[in-house]
Amino acid sequence: MKSYEVNFDGLVGPTHNYGGLSYGNVASQSNSQQSSNPKEAALQGLAKMKALMEMGFQQGVLAPQERPDVAALRRLGFAGSDAQVIERAAKDAMPLLVASCSASSMWVANAATVSPSADTADGRVHFTAANLNCKYHRSIEHPTTSRVLGAMFADQKHFAHHAALPAVAQFGDEGAANHTRFCRDYGQAGVEFFVFGRSAFDTRYPAPQKYPARQTLEASQAVARLHGLSGDGVVYAQQNPSVIDQGVFHNDVIAVGNGEVLFYHEDAFLETDKMLAELQAKLGKCGGNFQSICVPRSQVTVEDAVRSYLFNSQLLSRADGSMLLIVPEECRGNERVWQYLQSLTSSGGLIREVKVFDLKQSMQNGGGPACLRLRVALNQTELAAVNPGVIMTAPLYGTLTQWVDKHYRDRLSENDLADPQLLLECRTALDELTQILKLGAVYPFQIN
């Protein structure tokens, strides 16, 4: 039976703004308070989805969340009508209003961790929504994320959904941004690679000194248990604390993997040789041939990687066995990174082609091509069981671009977030979107 890696990209929400909310994310902080363009952001993301679909890759779409999150503001003590809640938050606690308006759910690499049926004990595809408890504006996402994923992957015969881990620092979980799967074929058993920044309970593991390590070893181990993964099919690795302190807030900012290949920076991990040997041994038991591409610091510095998002790329396996790397325009704008990529593709190695996409609106907020997608390995039967409304097609692309043109603003500043009309615009748009994507009632305003 044929199997696929399906990329479900996050659709940028109507409140896309530059709030500078993500401490440790250099791009997010450096572009704080600039005016954003939600319409352009959504159209840039849709253009990438369409391009990958036209290249022959299976492509889906994951809906954004309701923002501002008025219910979250009410839990923080703001009372009255929806308009009054927004007005009072803007007057008394503008940072909380900005957080409640964040469109960060667009980066669906943080939505969940996904294990395919070939790896799990019960033979189902398992999803665990990420608690994202390191940042308040992201910690409020997982209830809606769970409902949306449940509406997309509803057949309990094929799909299993787990609630987010306890929302405490010891179980900080950032989802697939710190998780990669290696396999010979998407339908065969593989090795799931969990990268953590610190241990909550074991002091033998060093921690960064400047920026927070968002993913804990204990969270990764809990997800592996929930998904019924075998110890022979799991590898844990620690991210280098010094690169976290340089702005590498997730593993997908310093490494990316797919199939049998890991593409990583020389400074990405601790005990790299031991980690590579374990990946090679365990993937070999699954019939695979693990291969790695190390980018030396002498050619690309960590700062270059963070500024260009070289590793926040999509590494895609094509039908002829070659590999394609999807990178943001910022890679072409960095001389050292672009020179490295040119030498990489001309060497006749594993990665044969690089394609560049303009994702400036997302990039300025700290998210590149890899942030915008959640990978789900599915066999033909499982793909047929996915809600067909979320699978990208040419007609759906046309419908969604028209929907964006109709509902999205082309400029949004911090002051605009205090406009109660923005909430009404968002709810109207999302109500229509759930009908387009055939999701049913997944948003609080539709349920309550």
Straight-line distance between termini:
42 Å
β-sheet strand percentage? 15-25%
What's the architecture in CATH terms? 5-stranded Propeller
How many separate structural domains? 1
Q: How much helix is in the residues?
A: 25-40%
Count of beta strands: 15
**Quick one: overall form?**
globular
Textual characterization of the structure:
The protein is α/β, with parallel strands linked by helices and 448 residues long. The chain has one domain: Succinylarginine dihydrolase (L-arginine/glycine Amidinotransferase, Chain A, 5-stranded Propeller), CATH 3.75.10. 35% of the residues lie in helices and 17% in strands. The strands form five sheets. It has a three-stranded mixed sheet with strand order 2-1-15, sandwiched between helices. A hairpin with an 8-residue loop joins β6 and β7. α2 packs antiparallel against α16, α4 packs across α5 and α16 packs antiparallel against α17. The longest helix is centred in the first third of the chain and has 17 residues. About 2% of the residues have low confidence. It catalyses: N(2)-succinyl-L-arginine + 2 H2O + 2 H(+) = N(2)-succinyl-L-ornithine + 2 NH4(+) + CO2. Catalyzes the hydrolysis of N(2)-succinylarginine into N(2)-succinylornithine, ammonia and CO(2). Belongs to the succinylarginine dihydrolase family. Homodimer. It is an enzyme of class 3 (hydrolase).
